[in-house]
Write a structure and sequence with these properties.
- 53% of the residues lie in helices and 17% in strands.
- The strands form four sheets. It has a six-stranded mixed beta sheet with strand order 1-4-5-6-2-3, sandwiched between helices.
- The chain starts with a helix and ends with a strand.
Length: 549
């Protein structure tokens, strides 16, 4: 090839390469660190997010933690998404601007030396071209290598290890400038390969001359800039997270304030304060809930007030009736007692009628006394006359007073071994009701046992059990057995039982701080259990006002 034609071909290199598209060979990462900066250097926010999630208590039990976590997640995701998009665009812009500037300077330098490099070049010609390119771009940290066939020249060191086979193949077969970013020895580099072409008048496309130059430029500055962006994104994420937590706490306070007020109000209502009301502020869903609660509380207060009024009237009616009946019943009882003495001298029909009247009067007297006792319980006017007694001896006196010792089997501790402070009269009522109930509605044998149960070192109970061998208590009647006027069998509605005995028994046991229960025995029959606390130390007073159960 003649000198003028080579010179003309070399002069057209810059014009043709300027309008030619650059081909980018796939980015090859030797250490897989620099190219994926987002993955390699974006671990800070991910690590921070994981730490926050790890410290979040699970399961979340309250509304406040849920709101805080939700706000924090939204803030972190938003900050990371925005930061990732901004990072990608900024990183792309930084790297694109850097590589365009380097490629443009490198092309200018190659065009300048290619005109004066003969073809085919000698090794000295390649060294001269490399030195001219480096002199034109001093203080850039460039490493340049020129090749022609098997000849090569480089300075300041060999960069062959940084050139991938793909880049070499592309430079040898294509006319466009190619580049790729690699990571070697922990440092990022931009590698550029530029073939030198020449033009002939006989061909439409320029031909490859076989002469090529390679450039390796360190990109530490660009990497530092990218790391600075990552640090900025981490700080922005932390600020967004803090703001989200503050906003979540403020929002949680606004939501939880009426909820907590509602919780306090419901607890007060459960304690019996039906006049509680909530302050209604605003017109949102929480305000509607507060209005609904106030309406419900007002309706409940009216209903309970009406029920209490009716209950008070019923109790007053029973008390008044019982009180008004006591005087005429006392007179009737006196008359029937006199008539009972003369019953043997009367004819049979008159005697039978007299006995019916006497029995009815006696039953009516018992019913009135029971009603009066229930009225005192309802009015809270019952007082315990406590005395230290021997429980076993008190039970024996109860059975003897009613003529039951031969009908009831007893298993009681020795006299003097089980003593406590009780109201003897009310204990007598309890035992008489339970034993009488077993004798009337059960079947023999009827047994009465008394034991001691240690609950703790300082708490023990006297356990009294009354059992029978009858048919037992129906399962549907078991929850109502201690209710007033309740009778387990409809056939007993006209029996001598008033349906108040077990209710009075339960009230007397509760007054002593004890417990009473009923159950069916597996072998048949029923068992009534009374548990009375054993007081190790006697109180200072002998009278105790009846308290709440």
């Amino acid at each position: 090839m003649s000198g003028p034609r080579v010179a003309r071909a070399r002069k057209t290199v810059r014009k043709r390469d300027a309008v030619r598209n650059r081909e980018v060979v796939g980015d090859r990462e030797v250490v897989r660190n620099h190219e994926a900066v987002a993955a390699g250097e974006g671990r800070g926010p991910v690590r921070f997010l994981r730490a926050v999630l790890a410290k979040t208590p699970l399961p979340l039990r309250g509304l406040r933690p849920r709101l805080v976590v939700a706000f924090a997640l939204v803030a972190v995701v938003s900050a990371l998404s925005t930061g990732a998009l901004a990072f990608r665009e900024a990183r792309t812009g930084v790297l694109q601007q850097s590589q365009d500037s380097v490629i443009r300077q490198f092309r200018t330098s190659v065009d300048a030396v290619a005109v004066y490099t003969p073809l085919p070049p000698r090794r000295s010609d390649l060294e001269t071209a490399v030195n001219q390119v480096l002199r034109a771009n001093q203080s850039q940290g460039w490493q340049v290598m020129a090749t022609y066939g098997s000849l090569r020249a480089f300075t300041p060191g060999d960069i062959s290890d940084k050139l991938s086979p793909e880049l070499r193949r592309s430079v040898g077969t294509h006319r466009a400038t190619v580049f790729q970013r690699v990571n070697a020895d922990g440092h990022p580099y931009l590698v550029v390969g530029m073939p030198v072409t020449y033009d002939t008048s006989e061909e439409k496309e320029p031909r490859l001359s076989g002469f090529a130059m390679y450039l390796v430029v360190p990109q530490n500055t660009e990497q530092a800039y990218v790391q600075a962006m990552v640090g900025g994104i981490e700080r922005a994420t932390l600020v967004a997270l803090c703001l989200a937590v503050v906003l979540a706490l403020l929002a949680a306070g606004g939501v939880l304030r009426p909820v907590r007020a509602l919780r306090r109000a419901t607890r007060r209502m459960a304690e019996g304060h039906l006049d509680i009301r909530l302050a209604v502020n605003g017109s949102d869903e929480l305000a509607d809930l507060s209005r609904s609660f106030n309406d419900t509380a007002a309706a409940l207060e009216r209903s309970v007030a009406e029920l209490r009024r009716l209950e008070a009237r019923a109790r007053r009616f029973a008390a008044d009736v019982s009180h008004e009946l006591r005087t005429p019943l006392a007179a009737m009882s006196a008359v029937t007692d006199v008539l009972d003495e003369n019953a043997p001298h009367l004819d049979q029909e008159t005697g039978d009628a007299l006995r019916l009247v006497s029995e009815g009067t006696s039953r009516l007297s018992v019913l009135v006394e029971d009603l009066m006792e229930i009225s005192r319980f309802d009015a809270g006017a019952v007082r315990l006359n406590l005395d230290e007694v021997d429980l076993a001896e008190s039970v024996r006196r109860t059975l003897a007073a009613r003529g039951w010792p031969g009908r009831v089997e007893t298993r009681l501790p020795r006299p003097g071994t089980l003593r406590t402070r009780v109201d003897p009269r009310r204990l007598d009522v309890v035992m008489a009701n339970l034993v009488g109930n077993a004798l009337r509605h059960g079947a023999p044998p009827v047994r009465l046992t008394m034991t001691v149960r240690e609950e703790r070192a300082d708490v023990s109970w006297a356990v009294i059990e009354v059992t029978d061998s009858g048919p037992g208590i129906a399962e549907e009647a078991m929850p109502h057995i201690f209710e007033r006027f309740y009778k387990a069998s409809t056939a007993r509605t006209r029996s001598e039982s008033s349906g108040l005995g077990l209710a009075i028994t339960a009230e007397n046991v509760y007054l002593h701080g004890g417990r009473v229960s009923a159950a069916n025995r597996p072998e048949g029959g029923s068992v009534f259990t009374v548990e009375l606390p054993l007081h190790r130390e006697s109180p200072d007073t002998d009278e105790t006002t009846a308290g709440a159960r």
